[in-house]
Structure prediction request, 462 residues.
Amino acid sequence: MLTKTKPYSEKIHSWGRIWGIGAILIFIFYPLAVSVYYSAWPELGPFLKGLLGVAPVFWIVGAIEAFTYAPMLGAGGAYLGFVTGNLTNLKVPCAINAMALAKVKSGTEEGEVISTISIAVSSITTMVIIFLGVLLLAPLQPILESELLAPAFDNILPALFGGLAVVFVSRNWKIALAPLIFMLVIFISFPALASSVSIMVPVGVIIAISVSRILYKKSYL
Amino acid sequence: MAQFDTNSIFLFISAGIVIAFVVCQAVFFLVKAWKRARELGISEDVLKRVVKGSVVFTLAPAVSIILGVITLSKFLGLPLPWVRLSVLGALTYELPAATTAANALGVSVSNRITDPATYSTIAWVMTLGIMSGLIIITFFSKKIHTGLDRIQGKDKKWGEIFNTSLFMGMISAFLGMIFSNIRAGLVGWIPVFIMIISSIIMLICGYFIKVHKVKWLEDYALSISMIMSMIISIPITNLIQ
Prediction:
């Protein structure tokens, strides 16, 4: 039993674990309900073939994201963020931005609660907007799929990371320089890697941590 | 056996249950974190700014997620893409996962599914294919954070630098990716131009915040630079192509 005396940093792990297990079960509930209700269980062969086509890559990506984003988001933010998804393109930048505007640091308890609040708000907003999108699909579809708007949606990541980079890279350019140069060379040399950018994130992280460790030891940071 | 329709009431209700659970979780964490923030002495005013800033920031990415729902709905109906894109997954995952599963079954992604077994196979693959992050966080997050606390406990400054390095590593990968097509000619430079425009708009916002003390802009600067550069990408793309 949880008692009032347990600190927030302890309780958050208990809550996170309970909700996480609940989420895993409820996510499995959807395909399970389909299989039971329609008496339509997947055939083992195609199921395994399909799963082997996605799971090896995306299980690795998921694992990488867990280890990279958990420290940035703090415990509460990570528990919620990994249930609600869309981390890279939405929740992580949203949390980082929120911590900056509240002037708190990631890795502190203040940073963690701000990150949790921003991820919760962002998740609820996303679910409301998608719900409205599903309700209003008929009138929305021609607008959202129009050729006119296509470039805007194609460029959402450069539009997001351009603004983020100005704020955060300029503040931490000594740490960012080496991984940035490395990534530029790699992506310009091997454009096909763009589709597996998540795999490159830990490479960037390892370079950034190694360089900052050296700079820190030599008192440049 | 019930008649199968990818947009059946049953599927909508099932999807609704999953989403309702996740909404409850988000509200639960919001309430707990809010209380804790107040205990830590963070003012209500700052928290409200965080809420407003986060809502506005979420608008453009969330609308782009609807686009993903529309794309997948042509083949899977609405409930499955609705649930998959509202929770857990990501835009970059759901389409390849659905396509791979469809290929394994030998069905085309351009026609609406009519066979419930095909549908259930795809639903199982999409669900199980991306569970690792959630499983690791659920069962090992405490260990990860205890390890981090140890790093920070030993050397607070290095702990901060470590966290910043994680973010810089991530952001550098995405910034590098933006340049991946530049060898394809001017068209390949479009994402780079948009990134630069977004940076310039951010700098302009920064100027107004710092020099003219436009306080409210601080909360929306990132959203403004993102949405404005997305809009500007339309004429730029038309001009170049």
Remarks:
- DSSP finds nine helices and no strands in chain B.
- Chain B has two domains: 9-130, 179-240.
